């Protein structure tokens, strides 16, 4: 079409159309209809899934390679079903609030609790590291049950779900922080006696924040527990069941075809 020409149906009458031109118009119309119907493109029309999250290295973070282990795993699972993923980073308590309100499709990565199962459509689980108490080297703190830790002040991130027993233990002295880096610093500078963290998160935090002092911190032998991770989809979104199903199907493939091991290796992690 020449520059500044009117649309085809304005400057060419039906009788003036050549057979070739009519065929081109028909093909364009057919392709448009097929695209609107979702035929010939990615499953579900290549929808973008919008997930609220936080900077929580090495699992997820704006500046991490591929945005972190969990981010890459979630993205890969969704891509197996034709979806794209976009992450929106914010403080964790805000992320929880906005997803419950339906501002985003989901929240990730998240630990399981019965309350969260009621509030969200939770995905199948994927692997994470154990929850461990950290203490200063030389500190004589040991425990067999949580009640043994009653005399000590424990740094824990606000809004995190740890274990049911720990989260409901109101007799413990919990010092809430906004992130793991603050918990690590509080332990180093003596304002708390213990720091509760995911082991992989703790290793990353100590390696990247005051690494010259990491040797002053040691993990306690007995883990608090192991919490695997989930994606939590907002029940305020009408397609939350479809998104949960799509992610679970992609995740099942990743867990069974060797992709999980490749993703872990990419982020220098091992769950063996």
Report on this structure.
The chain is of the alpha/beta class and 272 residues long. The chain has two domains: 43-127 and 228-266, Periplasmic binding protein-like II (D-Maltodextrin-Binding Protein, domain 2, 3-Layer(aba) Sandwich), CATH 3.40.190; 130-226, Periplasmic binding protein-like II (D-Maltodextrin-Binding Protein, domain 2, 3-Layer(aba) Sandwich), CATH 3.40.190.10. The chain has ten helices and eleven strands. The protein has helices spanning 8-11, 19-37, 69-79, 92-100, 114-119, 164-167, 180-188, 199-208, 240-256, 259-266, and strands at residues 48-53, 84-89, 106-111, 120-122, 130-136, 153-157, 173-177, 194-198, 217-219, 225-226, 229-234. The strands form two sheets. Strands 5, 6, 7, 8, 9 and 10 form a six-stranded mixed β-sheet that branches. It has a five-stranded mixed β-sheet with strand order 2-1-3-11-4, sandwiched between helices. Helix 3 links the parallel strand 1 (48-53) and strand 2 (84-89).
């Amino acid at each position: 079409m020449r520059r500044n020409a009117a649309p085809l149906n304005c400057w060419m009458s039906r009788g003036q159309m050549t057979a070739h031109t009519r065929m081109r118009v028909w093909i364009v119309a057919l392709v448009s209809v097929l695209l609107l119907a979702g035929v010939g493109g990615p499953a579900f029309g290549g929808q973008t899934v919008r997930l609220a999250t936080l900077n929580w290295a090495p699992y997820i973070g704006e500046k991490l390679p591929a945005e972190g282990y969990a981010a890459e795993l979630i993205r890969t699972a969704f891509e197996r079903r034709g979806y794209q993923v976009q992450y929106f980073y914010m403080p964790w308590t805000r992320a929880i609030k906005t997803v419950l309100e339906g501002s985003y499709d989901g929240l990730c990565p998240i630990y399981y609790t019965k309350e969260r199962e009621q509030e969200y459509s939770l995905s199948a689980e994927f692997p994470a590291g154990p929850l461990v108490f950290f203490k200063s080297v030389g500190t004589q703190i040991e425990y067999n049950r949580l009640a043994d830790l009653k005399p000590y002040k424990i740094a824990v991130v606000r809004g995190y779900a740890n274990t049911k027993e720990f989260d409901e233990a109101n007799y413990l002295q919990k010092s809430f922080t906004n992130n793991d880096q603050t918990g690590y610093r509080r332990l180093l500078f003596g304002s708390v006696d213990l720091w509760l963290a995911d082991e992989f998160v703790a290793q990353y935090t100590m390696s990247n924040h005051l690494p010259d002092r990491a040797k002053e911190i040691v993990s306690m032998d007995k883990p608090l527990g192991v919490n695997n991770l989930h994606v939590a989809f907002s029940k305020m979104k009408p397609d939350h069941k479809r998104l949960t199903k799509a992610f679970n199907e992609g995740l099942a493939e990743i867990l069974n075809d060797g992709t999980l091991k490749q993703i872990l290796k990419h982020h220098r992690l091992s769950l063996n």
